[in-house]
Amino acid sequence: MNFKRLAVSCAVAVLPAMAQVSNASAHAALLKAFQAQHGPMRLLVQHDDGSVESTNWSGYAVTGSGFKDATGSWIEPAITCNKKTDTELAAFWVGIDGYSSSSVEQTGTLAICENGQQEHIAWWEFYPTNDIQEIGKITVSAGDTISASVKYAKGEFTLKITDETTGKSFTHKGKQSAARSSAEWIAEAPCCVSGDTVYPLPKFGTVLFGKDNTSVAGTNDATNTSHSGAFNTFPSADVFAITMVNASGSHPTEASPSAPSSDGTSFSVLWVSP
To answer: Which residues pair with 173 in a beta bridge?
Structure first.
């Protein structure tokens, strides 16, 4: 995902109403949070057991070839802002590519803290072809059940995201060159505060991915040329649990995925105090 600074006159027209922001100046301040990027996973280390440490992703990825769909759902978590930090961002999404390739086709939600103000938005993106696109028709609130899918057919990707709580949905179709070598279900820390440093995460507690945790059935699935099913039903060598860590010092954990549910369809990502 690729964030750019947005002109206030344009952004006000496309962003949903801010449930926790009561004036135009606070609304404008939140827009500063969009000077960031969400791109491919930043791999720090891959262990022999298949677990992965990354400086910007936490969740699960499956790898292979010819991925043509990825579906998922999650419950948008409530967030707590750190009053000592100007901007904190956490994105939750489903996508194809990005684990070991240079593009990402993705759609999801973003939880924002900007000088203590909070907001949740829906978005989609073909990285790096175009910037993040906010979805103004979907107003996201903490506690909402979100479902999302990325599908590929006949040279075209179709992204769909639905707020199952409100019934609002959005679909976009488009093309870009893509490896289609992975599918992901991710909590992410966007880049960049300065240089190449990711933004700190707001405290989001636990974000729940999958049908065992929501009212949406048939989620956290993917299909490629050799397999179709829940993420943890793929060959074990192709399933990667991703822990987000700080790249400095002793690599303290910042967000960590749980083990998959018994049927391989569900998991959670836990925010860890830095």
So the answer is: 158
